Amino acid sequence: MNSLYYQKRLSRNIGDKFFTSLSVICALIAILPLIFLVTYILIKGGSQITPELFTLEPNPPGDDLDAGGINPALIGTLIITTIASIIAIPVGVGGGIYLAEYSKGGAFSRFIRFGVNVLAGVPSIIAGVFIYALIISTKILFGSMYSGLAGGMALSILMLPTVIKTTDEGLKLVPNELRYASLGVGASMYTTILKVTLPSAFRSIATGVVLGIARAAGETAPLIFTALFSYYYITGLGDLFYEMGSLAVLIYNFALEPYDAQNKLAWAASFILVLSILSVNIFSRILAAFTEKTKRV
Amino acid sequence: MIKTNKKIPKNIILSLENVSISYGTFEAVRNVFCNFKKGNITSLIGPSGCGKSTVLRSLNRMNDLIPNCSLKGTVLFDGTNIYDKRVDPVEVRRRIGMVFQQPNPFPKSIYENIAFGARINGFTGNMNELVEISLRKAALWDECKDKLNDSGYSLSGGQQQRLCIARTIAIEPEIILMDEPCSALDPISTLKIEETMHELKKNYTIIIVTHNMQQALRVSDMTAFFNAIEYEDGDGGKVGYLAEFNSTKKIFNSPKEKTTQEYISGKFG
Question: Which residues contact B264 (CB under 8 A, 6 or more apart)?
Answer without folding.
Answer: B45, B213, B225, B251, B252, B255
